[in-house]
């Protein structure tokens, strides 16, 4: 069997295993094997193929993998759903206490409770949404 074909099979196997594990390490090794297959295809002797594979594999693992992992593990920049409401201002429609109340957040009315159980917030006040529990907004008055 031709050496380039063996390197190509190694690259394919490593790529498939990378897809299953998502470690980014085996993907780098697969890229190195693919490049080595190209070098074997142009007639590079076997000892130089192994040297090329070692250099390419080390280079991708040292320099490319950390960049790839940084892009994979980025924190979520946008909040969606009820998480997007936390920190927004709200208008108190009816008095908010630790047991009852209504607020308007972005044009929608929500049941509300005071974030600090000792506070009673009068209607017409502006509050900040501190937390969402179920369908209830926990709010705290703006000062």
Key phrases:
5 strands, alpha+beta, 3 helices, five-stranded mixed barrel, OB fold (Dihydrolipoamide Acetyltransferase, E2P), 2 domains, rod-shaped, 143 residues
Textual characterization of the structure:
By secondary structure, the protein is an alpha+beta fold. The protein has two domains: 3-72, no CATH class; 81-141, Nucleic acid-binding proteins (OB fold (Dihydrolipoamide Acetyltransferase, E2P)). The protein is 44% helix and 22% strand. It contains three helices and five strands. It has helices spanning 3-21, 25-41, 46-72, and strands at residues 89-94, 102-105, 108-114, 126-133, 136-141. The longest helix has 27 residues, at 46-72. The protein is rod-shaped, with a radius of gyration of 29 Å. The mean pLDDT is 92.
Note the overall shape. Answer: rod-shaped
From the structure provided, what is the oligomeric state, counting identical versus distinct chains? single chain
Give the helix/strand class: alpha+beta
Strand percentage = 15-25%
């Amino acid at each position: 069997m031709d050496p380039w074909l063996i390197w190509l099979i190694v690259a394919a196997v490593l790529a498939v295993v990378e897809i299953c594990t998502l470690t980014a390490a085996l993907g780098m090794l697969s890229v190195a094997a693919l490049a080595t297959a190209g070098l074997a295809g142009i007639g590079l002797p076997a000892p130089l193929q192994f040297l090329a594979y070692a250099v390419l594999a080390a280079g991708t693992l040292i320099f490319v993998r950390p960049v790839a992992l940084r892009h994979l593990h980025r924190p979520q920049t946008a909040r969606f759903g009820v998480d997007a409401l936390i920190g927004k201002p709200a208008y108190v429609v009816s008095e908010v206490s630790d047991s009852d109340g209504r607020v308007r957040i972005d044009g929608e009315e929500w049941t509300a409770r005071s974030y600090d159980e000792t506070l009673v917030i009068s209607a017409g006040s502006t509050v900040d949404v501190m937390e969402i529990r179920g369908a209830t907004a926990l709010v705290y008055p703006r000062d």
